[in-house]
């Protein structure tokens, strides 16, 4: 099996573009991470992943009108992912003023097509709080299925571990098919 992950390709959705997180974008992602996590800084191991493999494991969302980076999705491999052949969606974040317009779902879909191009990956895993309706709905719309529900003591929240099977995305890439929603995002397949 070939364990290579390609660089995230560019995709467009409305007036936003998704692209690989290059080294010059790292500081923007770190700033957004701090906003998302109430001032907490990204830990050393994830920081290294971002710097060394950001182009393969992180995508940034750019507002094409202002050239501002308004969101990101960062992926990495936990022990469970290595065992189960998945990659973990560690964070997906959009600045509040850009939410609820379909961008978050489109950016996650872009990442699913990206990872569907890696033959060694079966799926993408994600942890979502049950009270995070936008994130939960977005994941469900993309094909994520709940694997287990649990209570996270550190967050004091009910959460769900979800996995999205990459096979349907792979089939679409192979057959050159696109569903209606994908038509808005260019570079697939
Ligand atoms: C989670 C997040 C990435 C979703 O992106 P988004 O662009 O806001 O979501 P979308 O516009 O694509 O909407 C996804 C679905 O959720 C629904 N939705 C959006 N906002 C909602 C809200 N506030 N409450 C309930 N449902 C909502 C939408 O209607 C849509 O479902 P539908 O297509 O079936 O109608 C974004 O809201 C965000 O960055 N949130 C803060 C960070 C976060 O929670 N990250 C995820 C951690 S697991």
Please compute the radius of gyration using only Cα atoms.
16 Å
Total domain count? 1
Q: Uncertain segments of ≥5 residues (pLDDT<50)?
A: 183-189
Number of strands: 8
Shape: globular
The CATH topology is given as: Aminopeptidase
CATH 4th-level superfamily: Gcn5-related N-acetyltransferase (GNAT)
The profile of the biggest β sheet is: 8 strands, mixed
Strand order of the largest sheet: 1-2-3-4-5-6-8-7
Mean pLDDT: 93
- What is the second-level CATH architecture? 3-Layer(aba) Sandwich
Structural class: alpha+beta
Number of H/I helices:
6
**How many angstroms separate the termini?**
22 Å
Report the CATH C-level class: Alpha Beta
Bound molecules: coenzyme A
SSE series: EEHHEEHEHEHEEH
- Report the portion of residues in β strands: 25-35%
Question: Percent range for helical residues?
Answer: 25-40%
Layout of secondary structure:
Layout: E1 11-13, E2 16-20, H1 26-36, H2 44-57, E3 58-63, E4 69-76, H3 79-84, E5 86-94, H4 103-116, E6 123-129, H5 133-142, E7 144-152, E8 157-165, H6 167-175
Helix pairs in contact: 4-5
This protein binds coenzyme A.
Coenzyme A is lined by residues 36, 92-94, 99-105, 128, 132-135, 137-138, 141.
